[in-house]
Design goal:
Blueprint: H1 2-13, H2 19-33, H3 39-52, H4 56-68, H5 73-98, H6 124-138, H7 141-153, H8 158-175
Length: 181
């Protein structure tokens, strides 16, 4: 697995010649190879984060790894599309957070369809993980807090939640590097 990841990183971003690139590469490699998160959870979240950041090459890499691990196409598609539903919700709830206390009661109910959150293909815990990591990337305090609370209530350890946030942060950093391939 580490060799594939190294090959992907080199193909996409080069050898990591600068100290910033090396920091990002080492952080990314550590999170993808040595984390309390299950390997499948790492790649599900990577696919969701990559879609959220419009990093199609990284999204495809994650999807290929998930296919190789035997994950069904529908489960992979849900991971990728979780960026879309969370993009909608993160935008809406950030909007609500910008409102003054006088305006907020005028928008008491979102009124947005989100049936997909009820019975996710990947299960509630995995969907909450993806929702959390995408919310971190999208910078929605309300959603980050809500999904962190849900993950804690589902029994997900704090160190796993922390690694989801760190993965989101590192991939966001990688998204700012010049793409070579």
């Amino acid at each position: 697995m580490s060799e594939k990841l190294d090959a992907y990183m080199t193909k996409t971003w080069g050898e990591g010649a600068t100290s910033i690139q090396r920091d990002l590469f080492l952080n990314f490699k550590k999170l993808m190879t040595d984390s309390p998160l299950e390997e499948t959870d790492r790649y599900l979240n990577l696919a969701a984060i990559a879609r959220s950041l419009h990093m199609s090459s990284l999204e495809n890499f994650a999807a290929d790894e998930l296919k190789e691990k035997g994950l069904a196409g529908e489960a992979i598609q849900e991971a990728i599309e979780s960026a879309a539903i969370m993009g909608m919700l993160n935008t809406y709830y950030k909007f609500k957070g910008f409102l003054s206390s006088e305006s907020a009661p005028n928008f008491s109910r979102a009124g947005l369809r989100m049936q997909s959150l009820g019975k996710p293909i990947n299960g509630k815990e995995k969907f909450e993980m993806m929702s959390f990591s995408v919310s971190v990337v999208n910078g929605c305090p309300t959603c980050v807090s809500s999904h962190e609370k849900a993950l804690s209530q589902l029994g997900v350890e704090a160190e796993k939640i922390h690694d989801l946030a760190r993965l989101a942060a590192v991939v966001k950093g990688l998204s700012a590097l010049t793409v070579l391939a």
